[in-house]
Every structure is written in C-alpha cells, then in structure tokens.
C-alpha cells in the first residue's frame, strides 16, 4: 500500500498538466452528459458521490495514520478543510429541504468549486510521494468539480437562488474550523501535527500564496480576515456569473 514515486511529480510539471487536462475534459463531458438529467437523479448522484468521498476519506485517515505518521498523534489531516465540506454537503443534500438544501447546493457550486479549482492549480500539498495518496487527492478534487456542476444544474431549474444562506453556512464552517485549530494547538503544540483547518490557524502565519505576505505585514488576524473574505468574494463572483449575469443578458 505504501508505494512511493521514484521521483515525486512537481507542480506545473508534465504530470500535473496532464492531470489538469484530463480533469477539464472529464468535467466538460460530464456537464454535457447531465444537461437533461432530472432533479431527482441529480440529487441521487450527489448522494452517491458524497458516500464515495466519505469512504475515500475514511481510507485516507487510515492510510496517513499507518504510513505517514505511523501512530503519532496528529490532526493535520483532520477532515474539516474547505474542500472537505463537499463530501458532507453532497451526502446530506438529498435529505435537506427548502432553504437548507438550496444553501448546500449553492455552496457546492460556488465555495466548493473555488476550493477545488485553487487546490488543483496550486497543488503543492497534494504532490506527495505516496502514489495512492497522490491519486486520492486529485480524484477527490475532480469529484468536487463534478458535484459543483450537478448542483449548478439543479439550481438553474429553480426560480429563486440566494447567496446569503450559503455564505452563512461557510462562516459557520469556518468558525468550527477555528475551534478545531485552537483545540488542537493546545493539545499538540507542534505546527507539523496540529490542525490548520481552512488554513486559518491563529497561531502561525499562513502558508498560502499572497496571504503569507499579508500575515508578515499586517498580522495573522488581518490575514485570516482577508483570506476568508477573498474566498467569499470569489464565491460571490462565481454566483453572479452562474445565476445573475445570464438573467441580465436575457432581460
């Protein structure tokens, strides 16, 4: 199980570009394939994707405990990153009703899509020497894109689609992430092993591009606010492109 690359693929190397091209092609074909699929079947597809992601996450937790940390107490891979939220929303969305379901669907086709795209474009944390973990990371984020396409297709058939409930859901998720970060810090006190959910730990500067500079110049608190705000702004911009701009053009 612990198969290792003889040479770990590098970001923006040939392997990375081939993976991106394959994921893009798969997403385009998938979007075309589901364009006439009814809502009940689309929600069922989301549920199946969510279950598969939960199963894959359970495998990943076992794998990292056995082969990465080998029994060492660690919360670095705790499943509450922004990208982790897709599996929870997808698995639960068929059981949600009304505004709660709309919020989860909007989250999947905005916040989750933003998270997947940026993870795939800046994959430093996914370029791991363990072959199975490497494959898991890229497949997981590819599925996130497909889930976002499904959610978009469902919502396009609904009359009133609002962004605010999804924003509130995102902020609640971020609040939980920060609680996990604080608790793990006082439990472990080692940056290599404690949680950094949503990459907003208040104890260390961000490692994310651009925002690490914000932390260096303005402090961690400002960096966290800027980071969360940038994600929300990006998600809102995508929401406008998906649901508001087409209506304005048709008016």
Domain module tally: 1
**Spatial shape:** globular
Radius of gyration: 19 Å
**Share of β-strand residues:** under 5%
Q: Ends: how far apart? A: 57 Å
Helix fraction bin: 55-70%
List keywords for this structure.
251 residues; mainly alpha; globular
Describe it.
This protein is mainly alpha-helical and 251 residues long. It has one domain (14-250). It is 68% helix and 0% strand. The protein is built from 9 helices and no strands. The protein is globular and about 50 Å long. The relative contact order is 0.13. The mean pLDDT is 93.
Show the helix and strand layout.
Elements: H1 14-33, H2 39-68, H3 85-92, H4 98-109, H5 111-121, H6 131-155, H7 164-188, H8 211-218, H9 220-250
Helix pairs in contact: 1-6, 2-3, 2-6, 4-5, 4-6, 4-7, 5-6, 5-9, 8-9
Q: What's this model, at a glance?
A:
This protein has 251 residues and is mainly α.
